[in-house]
């Protein structure tokens, strides 16, 4: 049983820049020996992604809008034309209107709720269905990203907390559906990280500082730590792990309250 990805091929969806969690995962997978393909949305993200993809030896990039069936069909047709199999897929895609990631969840609009669920949750089911034919004969791994706001109220996370709860349920249902084909489905749940997506949430800097100061390990997770977890899950060492939400947050999720020396008046 080895923890490397030599000879494996993976699709990474959702790299925004070099600070993206998706990039941390892609970089770790490439260093572990994987051959990678990437998706991006729009020309601007494509320009940011191109040098990153090149740095890990990848020349396969395809523009994808996960709300557009035709766009997804073209992407997976191109992937199937390039590769006869897919060993792992990383889904790092989520979205909510920035104006609704502050204040009260009570004020979530119907339009943003629908859009958030479509992009952040349904897209994972949709890409899993398209990846399935490339995995079913030899098995594979589907990975997505979540956050503790799925199960515990987090200020300003609002509809994204509801979306992540649905995503985590989707992980479990997909794990059951696809397990008979040797396909494992898991989610990684990092704590707050300094990413483009994280910055959209109201009070992000204060949240990051709070968890950094209070996590049992005394730090928020790093991109390298999240990447290493993804390598393990996609490797043979993760052969019997499926349907799980893997916490990579310095242990913050075990706390019931802040550390004693961080309590007011301590």
From TrEMBL:
Sequence positions that bind NAD(+): 14, 20-21, 41, 65-66, 93, 164
EC number: 1.3.1.9
Enzyme class: oxidoreductase
Catalytic activity, reaction form: a 2,3-saturated acyl-[ACP] + NAD(+) = a (2E)-enoyl-[ACP] + NADH + H(+)
GO molecular function annotation: enoyl-[acyl-carrier-protein] reductase (NADH) activity
Pathway connected to this protein: Lipid metabolism; fatty acid biosynthesis
Keywords: Fatty acid biosynthesis, Fatty acid metabolism, Lipid biosynthesis, Lipid metabolism, NAD, Oxidoreductase
Gene3D superfamilies the UniProt entry points to: NAD(P)-binding Rossmann-like Domain
Active site, renumbered: 147, 157
UniProt GO BP: fatty acid biosynthetic process
SUPFAM superfamilies found in the cross-reference section: NAD(P)-binding Rossmann-fold domains (SSF51735)
Sequence intervals crossing the membrane: none
A Pfam family assignment: adh_short_C2
UniProt keyword annotation of Oxidoreductase present: yes
Alphabetical list of PANTHER family matching this protein: ENOYL-[ACYL-CARRIER-PROTEIN] REDUCTASE, ENOYL-[ACYL-CARRIER-PROTEIN] REDUCTASE [NADH], CHLOROPLASTIC
Family: Belongs to the short-chain dehydrogenases/reductases (SDR) family. FabI subfamily.
Protein name, UniProt field: Enoyl-[acyl-carrier-protein] reductase [NADH]
Annotated source species: Citreimonas salinaria
């Amino acid at each position: 049983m080895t923890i490397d990805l030599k000879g494996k091929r993976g699709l990474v969806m959702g790299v925004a820049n070099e600070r993206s969690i998706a990039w941390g995962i892609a970089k770790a997978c490439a260093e572990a020996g994987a051959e990678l393909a990437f998706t991006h949305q729009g020309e601007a993200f494509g320009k940011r992604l191109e040098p990153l993809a090149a740095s890990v030896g990848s020349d396969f990039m395809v523009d994808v809008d996960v709300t557009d069936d035709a766009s997804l069909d073209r992407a997976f047709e191109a992937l199937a034309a390039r590769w006869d199999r897919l060993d792992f897929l990383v889904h790092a895609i989520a979205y909510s209107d920035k104006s609704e990631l502050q204040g009260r969840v009570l004020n979530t609009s119907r339009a943003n709720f629908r859009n958030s669920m479509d992009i952040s949750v349904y897209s994972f089911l949709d890409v899993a269905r398209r990846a399935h034919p490339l995995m079913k004969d030899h098995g594979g791994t589907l990975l997505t990203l979540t956050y503790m706001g799925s199960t515990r109220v987090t200020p300003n996370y609002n509809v994204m907390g509801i979306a992540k709860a649905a995503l985590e349920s989707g992980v479990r249902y997909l794990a059951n559906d696809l397990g008979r084909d040797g396909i494992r489905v898991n989610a990684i749940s990092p704590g707050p990280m300094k990413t483009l997506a994280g910055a959209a949430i109201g009070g992000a800097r204060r949240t990051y500082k709070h968890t950094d100061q209070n996590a049992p390990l005394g730090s928020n997770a790093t991109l390298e730590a999240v990447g290493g977890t993804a390598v393990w899950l996609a490797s043979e060492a993760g052969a019997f792990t499926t349907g799980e939400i893997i916490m990579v947050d310095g242990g913050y999720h075990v706390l019931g309250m802040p550390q004693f020396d961080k309590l007011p008046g301590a």
